[in-house]
Design a protein that fits this description.
five-stranded antiparallel β-sheet, disordered N terminus, 34% strand, four-stranded antiparallel β-sheet, disordered C terminus
């Protein structure tokens, strides 16, 4: 009887584990991938973003990160934020047509950023690291896809290069994506529009005032004419005085 109870208890535990694994996904750690944060920025502006890199391996550390900037959306100014224990290098490429940055025509743009760990600075299992970048002016496109390579100390490389498909499921190895939104009208432009509208209202008010003034003048002139006309008619009715 005791053995039967133990067998039933073990079976119940296995069944619970299977259900929990299927429903909650407890079988192994959840898959994490490289992302860019924040996920949105404004077209034409400057943005400070961070590439967030979680370490997925249980035995190896992340020792290098390579971020490729999209060719169809070149950026004129790219600078990196120092990360303790990591060196950074950038690569450039020619762009045609040139990029206009505050009146300067740039013929080169950063095409790739590579961070490499030194000493004991690698991202260890169970940890993550952020790599900050400031860039702009951001191009007038809907999104920027940053294909990324994550290298581990054991030589394995995670290739986060799959581009998102509209309406489709998230790919297995998604690349970080920065969504770009159109800039809102500036305050100065709104003020200028308000000034134009106010000027139009003033012009309309002046036109209405002028019309009213002319109408009053016309009425006064007409009344004066009637008065003088009445005097003349009265004198005509009297006629000349005839003496006998």
């Amino acid at each position: 009887m005791t053995r039967l109870r133990r067998t039933a208890s073990a079976a119940a535990a296995l069944a619970f584990t299977a259900v929990a694994t299927a429903v909650l996904g407890f079988a192994g750690p959840a898959s994490a991938h490289v992302t860019v944060n924040p996920k949105e920025a404004t077209q034409g502006g400057y943005a400070r973003v961070a590439f967030r890199v979680p370490n997925e391996s249980d035995t190896a550390s992340t020792t290098k990160l390579e971020v490729v900037l999209p060719e169809n959306a070149p950026i004129g100014s790219v600078s990196t934020i120092p990360v303790p224990g990591w060196t950074v290098a950038t690569e450039k490429r020619k762009v045609d047509p040139p990029i206009d940055v505050h009146g300067s025509q740039l013929t080169e743009a950063v095409s790739k950023i590579t961070w490499t760990a030194t000493g004991d600075a690698a991202v260890k299992p169970g940890q993550f690291q952020e790599f900050g970048v400031s860039m702009g002016p951001l191009p007038k496109v809907e999104s920027m896809v940053f294909k990324t390579l994550q290298t581990y100390s054991d030589g394995n490389v995670s290739r986060w290069i799959d581009e998102p498909q509209p309406g489709g499921e998230e790919p297995e190895k998604p690349a970080p994506v920065l969504t770009l939104t159109a800039a809102a009208p500036s305050a100065s432009a709104a003020s200028a529009a308000s000034a134009v509208a106010a000027a139009d209202d003033d012009d309309d008010n002046e036109s209405v005032g002028a019309a009213i003034g002319l109408g009053i003048a016309g009425v006064a002139t007409g009344l004066a004419g009637l008065v003088f006309g009445g005097f003349a008619f009265a004198r005509t009715r009297r006629g000349p005085v005839v003496k006998s």
